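User: Run a structure prediction on this.
Assistant: Running it now.
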Amino acid sequence: MIMRRRSLPVLLSLLLVPTVAGSARVQTADEVVEKHIAALGGRAAIGKLTSRRATGTVTIATPAGDLSGPIEITAKVPNKTRAVMELDLTALGAADKMVVEQKFDGTAGWTLNSLQGDTPITGNQLENMKNGRFPTSLVDYKAAGIKVELLPRETIDGKSLIVLLAAPKTGSAVRMYLDPETYLGVRTVTTISTPTGDVEQVSAFSDYRTVDGVKVAFNVQNSNSQQTMTIKLDKVEHNMPLDDALFSVKAPGPIYR
């Protein structure tokens, strides 16, 4: 099989970047955060969540054509995450499929690739994963050592958006663009590390739906100078039992169950 593989390690870097976003018509960062949490469903509803399983489809735009397939994203408190996708490689002239799985057990991370082999997650990407909290880092950002600052508004697509800057002790800072009408996240901008260097990544959120009293974005588009990945969720479940082994770097977990 002949195919271009240089860009493939970037794929999962697009998935598990911390996604904390919110909005408000207030004048301090703390007030913005509280408006955002209320918009998501409130601290009580958020506090009841212990895990999430989201399933849907993923599409990655490439010069040769779109790669698509099913995707499953799972998370467990406080910061365990796993994403696995199965991509149809027909657009690249390959008859088989590629399974890519990225998992983080709260301390260590690993990328499992059915064609390229397995590699540990290190450096900036690992620090960014450590900064993530399920379901949102903003609930206890001060305790996590994240500094949140209110920046001047920016106009995007003709709309003036509130902007927060969340800066962790280590890892990349995240600019969060907030809808002043709904207090829900519109986009985030951060820096991610790829095999070819650091790139700026934009994550756009839409199609919010209420699941178990909490708002979830069912459409997420992650884009940078190298590629664009669009995730469309079909189903989101909360508080199902998830064995810690699912997030372990030691062995692949089940796919699409």
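DSSP finds three helices and 13 strands in the chain.
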